[in-house]
Specification:
By secondary structure, this protein is of the alpha+beta class. It has two domains: 91 residues, Winged helix-like DNA-binding domain superfamily/Winged helix DNA-binding domain (Arc Repressor Mutant, subunit A), CATH 1.10.10.10; 92 residues, Orthogonal Bundle (Arc Repressor Mutant, subunit A), CATH 1.10.10. The strands form two sheets. It has a three-stranded antiparallel sheet. Helix 1 crosses helix 3.
């Protein structure tokens, strides 16, 4: 069946072909709970279709709508615009039970993001205090970090790395989008060695 699927649509005029590719891509984006990759979209559009231009046109059509297309985790995802969060919670009659990261959690997450793969002991030495297993467990349950390969140091402890949820949560396309560490230090937002928390979206209001 997949082999018979007409992606190129050569029998349609260019304008109609482009419109059909747009609605196909939009349907895939709406149906997916996770970011949609370029490879996924390529399965439903023709070989001559520019996926970047296609996404740009869909995004342009969303101007003024309550949703937007976000580039995240190596793909694209349709998201409700942040300003409508309260409206959605009110309609569903639910309370906002989420909480921001404590400064301690944000510091641990920042260290892991920049130094991964890194062990809990290495993070503890870096920040100058013991990092509890509970802190690591909370970040893991939130889908922000995951276990990495075992360290070659004695005892072969697990290392930790950022998970895909980290990119999705903070709207990053890849880890290359993290702010440059040296630039943060030069700007006074971060003291050398990650001993102070940067003024980044990673930080919550809760001092913890």
């Amino acid at each position: 069946m997949a082999a018979e699927f007409d992606r190129d649509l050569d029998d349609l005029p260019p304008a109609l072909r482009w419109r059909e590719w747009m609605v196909r891509a939009e349907a895939v984006l709406f149906a997916s709970a996770a970011p949609v990759t370029r490879e996924m979209l390529a399965r439903v559009v023709g070989r001559d279709c520019s996926i970047d231009l296609l996404i740009d046109d869909i995004a342009a059509g969303a101007e003024g709508r309550p949703w937007e297309i976000a580039r995240t985790a190596g793909g694209w995802q349709i998201r409700t615009r942040a300003k409508f969060a309260g409206v959605i919670r009110a309609a569903a009659a639910v309370e906002d039970t989420s909480r921001p990261l404590s400064r301690g959690e944000a510091l641990v997450l920042t260290a892991i993001a920049y130094l991964q793969p890194v062990t809990r002991a290495e993070v503890s030495r870096l920040v100058g205090r013991e990092i509890s297993r509970d802190t690591v467990a909370r970040l893991s349950r939130a889908g922000l970090i995951a276990r990495g390969p075992r360290s070659p140091e004695p005892g072969a402890p697990y290392t930790y790395v950022t998970a895909r949820g980290f990119l999705e949560h903070f709207g990053l396309d890849s880890l290359r989008d993290l702010p440059d560490l040296e630039a943060l230090e030069d700007a006074g937002l971060l003291t050398p060695g990650l001993s102070a928390l940067p003024d980044l979206p990673l930080a919550g209001e809760d001092e913890g």
